[in-house]
Design a protein that fits this description.
Elements: E1 14-18, H1 23-34, E2 38-43, H2 48-60, E3 64-69, H3 75-89, E4 94-97, H4 116-143, E5 147-152, H5 156-159, H6 165-185, E6 190-197, H7 203-208, H8 211-220, H9 229-240, E7 251-254
Parallel strand pairs: 1-2, 1-4, 2-3, 4-5, 5-6, 6-7
Helix pairs in contact: 1-2, 1-9, 3-4, 4-6
C-alpha cells in the first residue's frame, strides 16, 4: 500500500467499503486501512476469494480488516453487513458504498430497446441497494455523533450519453439521494457525498484495452494520463476524514478534467 502523503487521518476509526473486491473498492479499502482505519470489506459471495486476498494484503503491513459477504438486493443482507461492523468494532465512522452490477451494463442499450429485466436489475442494485445501505448505516453513524456516507456515482449521471440509460438513471437518482441525506442530517454531523469517476483503468483493463483507444481518450481529455483506482481512493480518504468535514451534499467529478462544472 502506498499513498501520496504520510498521514493517518483515520486512526481509531472504522470504515465499511461495500464492494471492495476489485478496482475502486479495493483501492479504497487499502487506502483507508493505510490511513489507520479498521476496514470491513464487503462483497458478493462469489468474490470471497478476492476479499480474502485483500484482507491478507492489509494485514501483512499491519492494518486491520475483516471480510463480509453481502447482497445489495437483499435488505437483511445489507443490514447484516452493518451489524458485522458493529459487532467487530462497536461502531462505524464512514461507509464507502461502491457496488454496482457492471455485467448487465452491456445490455443497457437505449430507451426503446432495453428490457424490463435490465431496468429492474440495474435499479435494484445500483440505486435501491444504495438506499438500503443508507437506511441501515445512518443510525449507526448517528450513534457516533456523525460520520461520512461516500457513494460511487459516475459522470454518466450528467454526461447525457446515447446509451446506458438505466445506468445513468440509477446514478442520477443516487446523486439525488446524496443531496437528501446531506440536507436532512447534515446538522447532526452526517456528511453525504458522491464521487463521479470518469474512465478509471484498472491494471487488468490496461492490459486488455487497445492502445489506440487509450490514446483516443487521452487526446480528448485534459490530463496527461488515464485515471487509476487510487485516484478515487484518495478522494474517498479525504471525504472520510476530518479534512473533509466541510464538504457535504456534493457530487464531485474525479475524472482528470473530462467534465467541467
Amino acid at each position: 500500500m502506498t499513498q501520496a502523503m504520510g498521514s493517518r487521518r483515520m486512526a481509531g476509526k472504522v470504515a465499511i467499503v461495500a464492494g471492495a473486491a476489485t478496482g475502486i473498492g479495493r483501492a479504497s479499502a487499502l487506502r483507508l486501512a493505510e490511513e489507520g482505519a479498521a476496514v470491513i470489506a464487503g462483497s458478493p459471495a462469489g468474490e470471497k476469494t478476492l476479499i480474502d486476498s485483500l484482507i491478507a494484503e492489509i494485514e501483512q503491513v499491519g492494518g486491520r480488516a475483516t471480510g463480509c459477504v453481502f447482497d445489495a438486493t437483499d435488505d437483511a443482507s445489507v443490514a447484516a453487513l452493518i451489524d458485522a461492523a458493529m459487532t467487530a468494532h462497536g461502531g462505524i465512522d464512514a461507509v464507502h458504498a461502491n457496488f454496482a452490477d457492471l455485467r448487465i451494463i452491456f445490455e443497457d442499450s437505449d430507451a426503446i430497446s432495453v428490457t424490463d429485466a435490465v431496468l429492474e436489475r440495474t435499479l435494484d442494485v445500483n440505486l435501491k441497494g444504495m438506499m438500503r445501505i443508507t437506511r441501515h448505516a445512518l443510525p449507526r453513524l448517528q450513534q457516533r455523533g456523525g460520520g461520512a456516507m461516500i457513494y460511487t456515482s459516475s459522470t454518466a449521471a450528467i454526461a447525457g450519453e446515447d446509451t446506458r440509460p438505466c445506468y445513468a438513471m440509477a446514478k442520477s437518482g443516487l446523486n439525488a439521494l446524496v443531496r437528501h441525506v446531506a440536507s436532512r442530517w447534515g446538522r447532526e454531523g452526517i456528511r453525504a457525498n458522491a464521487i463521479m469517476p470518469g474512465l478509471v483503468v484498472t491494471p487488468e483493463k490496461r492490459e486488455t484495452m487497445p492502445a489506440d483507444f487509450q490514446a483516443q481518450i487521452l487526446a480528448a481529455g485534459r490530463s496527461p494520463r488515464l485515471g487509476e483506482p487510487e485516484d478515487i481512493a484518495a478522494m474517498v480518504a479525504l471525504l472520510a476524514s476530518r479534512d473533509g468535514e466541510w464538504i457535504n451534499g456534493q457530487c464531485i467529478a474525479v475524472d482528470g478534467g473530462a467534465t467541467l462544472s
